Amino acid sequence: MSGELSPEALLPLLETPLGQRYCYLERTTSTQDVAKAWAEAGAPEGALVVAEVQEKGRGRRGRPWQSTPGESLTFSLLLRPRISPERFPLLSFAAGVALREACGVGGLKWPNDLLASDGRKLAGILLEAGRGYVVLGIGLNVRAAPPGRAALVEFAPAGRIEVLAGFLNRLGRLYPGLEGQPNQILSAWRRYSLTLGQEVVLETPQETLRGRAVDIAEDGSLWLEVSGTMRRVTSGDVDLVGNIQEVWT
After folding, report:
1. Where are the domains of the chain?
2. In the prediction, which pLDDT does 249 show?
3. Strand runs (DSSP E) across 13-166, as ranges?
4. Of 90, 116, 91, nearest to 103 (Cα)?
């Protein structure tokens, strides 16, 4: 087992039940698949799967996710949220805030990417729901990145175990808020957003929209101003138009 990401390295850093059950793999098809199988077998909430190499790592809409052994951080976290399924998307907002704070750089693009200040992608977030559980997947470029993407070390000193523990601890503090009013989570997401106030092109399965991203609703959907008309969009892919605004801590 990699000493850098071993349970002996992680567990003393945790201040949350999340991650206390930990499966580390040198190689697997996908941490999402392993976590789902673990969930179906009755694993508790907070069970964590980390892999150095994913042979079939994936992001949203089945897009492949590339990772580099020893230089990326790819993991999946099992959650059993006590909220209605229509509120599950809010988990990605909580995860985005936790990841941004753990990394200390960049900003959030709706619905679930962490970008560097120059617009290159640092990390992606994936939610997949099963019967009575949600698997939250994270892929983060830490020490190296594929062409066109950003690595965390370009902007700040970064250790994989510190980022992983920081993410779990921050998510552990935010997660209970989803059962009540998620205002704290949404307010923090707005603060770190690189999307709101920007001109964007938004691709949905039905149409392509261009307008200004105005706000997010309580369920996480995006309010978009298109030719003077407000449109509420629940899903889609956003491209930012022009120079993005810096997000400050």
Report:
1. 7-192, 199-240
2. 45
3. 22-28, 48-54, 72-79, 107-109, 113-115, 121-130, 133-141
4. 116
Region for residue 100 given its phi and psi (left: phi exceeds 0; alpha: psi -120 to 50; beta: otherwise)? alpha
Question: Residue 173: beta bridge partners?
Answer: none
pLDDT digits (tens, 9 = 90+) for 56-75: 655 455 555 667 778 899 99
- CA dist 156 → 55, 108, 140, 152 (Å): 29, 17, 14, 6
Domains 7-192 and 199-240 fall in the same CATH topology: no
- The CATH label, of 3.90.180.10, 3.30.365.10, 2.30.30.100, 2.60.120.200, for the domain at 199-240 is 2.30.30.100
Of all residues in the chain, the percent with pLDDT exceeding 70 is 92
Residues 181-190: pLDDT tens digits?
788 999 999 9
Beta-strand pair 208-216/113-115: unpaired
State the pTM of this model: 0.91
The CATH superfamily holding the domain 7-192 is: Bira Bifunctional Protein; Domain 2 (3.30.930.10)
Strands of 72-79's sheet in order across: 22-28, 48-54, 72-79, 133-141, 121-130, 113-115, 107-109
